[in-house]
Amino acid sequence: MHSTYYIMKQLSSGQMSTRFSNLVNLALLVAAFCHDVNHTGRTNVFEVNSGSELATLYHDRAVLEQHHAAYTFRILKKDSCNIFANVKADDYKELRKLMIANILATDMK
User: 27 with 102: CB under 8 angstroms?
Assistant: First the structure.
């Protein structure tokens, strides 16, 4: 989370030549915040080797990262947690795609 914030701050201050759109910034921040939501305390290797339900569900690929992404969107679907309720449908699709890609990118394999 802190690294994401630092990079975004550098970008917005002009210290780096690239700038992200507000939508990308939002996706990065929320993904960074949620990238380990509902973590099992185990590794992907453990999940796969133990044949856990998560490993089965996610076909042994980036098991925990896929779980974190899915769990995040389950939470965000709740009316009391839907911070994206007023986001346009096209923007939401892009936001969701970016968030999932960024959460999956935390798989260190």
Answer: yes
